[in-house]
Amino acid sequence: MPLKTSININGKKVALSNLHKVFYQEKQFTKEQVIDYYIRMAPALLPHLANRPLTLKRYPNGVAEPFFYQKNCPASRPAWVNTAPIWSESNKKTIDFCLVNDLASLVWAANLASLELHTSLSLADDPDTPTMLVFDLDPGLPAGIRECAQVSLLLLEYFESKKLIPFIKTSGSKGLQVYVPLNTPVSYDQTKEFAKHVAQYLEQQQPQLIVANMRKALRQGKVLIDWSQNDSHKTTVCVYSLRAKNTPAVSAPVTWNEIKAVVQNNNGRCLHFTAEQALDRVNQHGDLFAPLLTLQQKLPSLGNH
């Protein structure tokens, strides 16, 4: 393929460049393969990106080289890439976020070397209302994915006791992420306070395994339940996004039975999914995160456990 080319997607011309550039050295995985992955994953991925303010994490020279976050949608974007003006309290200005609502916009973002796609927990038309609650489980060595799996099962037990259904995915890095779909009126103040409350409660139950305080010095051998992601100015990596690791790993949904098997068999390696494996899983299981888009659940009141 030439250094520069373009493709037509539903009548929209998308410019492509440097397709042979290697983005993942270890696997010689190229920019063309990144774009191909996102095209093939689009049916499952796009509903989770739709109408969510998107932060692009760009790696212009691959995962081994410097990256940068881009919140303001590039001025050079095609006219058909939608944007959402969102007031940023921390920056004291309005930021025009990209919205990736269709395949052409997704391919355009991938061509910008946006290996990782980080979304808001709320929709662009209601930026102060999160549609979900999230817990990022981050292990401190020598703790690893098995310990994260143990902690996630404690979260599962907690939410089932509240008659809520949580879902889980790999971070695509070293941890796991537990999501509770809400899709009902709630504020970030409420979700953040609730998430902190749950994390601190579980820390009290299992202090040798869990830490709820962000200080890295406290994390050794334990799993941080990071509740702080429940914030209007924070983003989490979108389900099915690639991650900028040595290999093209994906943040992939898993089942609770798979998590239980990790704990029973002490084998966290089975929770690492490459781009091809993630695509195979969607073909096999469908979109395990589909309920996050529609399932309506109410945040419990802070009170008795």
From TrEMBL:
Domain annotation DNA ligase D polymerase: ranges: 30-289
InterPro entries xrefs: LigD_pol_dom, MtLigD_Pol-like, NHEJ_LigD
Pfam annotation, one family: LigD_Prim-Pol
Highest taxon of source: Bacteria
Listed PANTHER family: BIFUNCTIONAL NON-HOMOLOGOUS END JOINING PROTEIN LIGD (PTHR42705)
Protein name (record): Bifunctional non-homologous end joining protein LigD
Organism whose genome encodes this protein: Propionispora vibrioides
Taxonomic path: Bacteria, Bacillati, Bacillota, Negativicutes, Selenomonadales
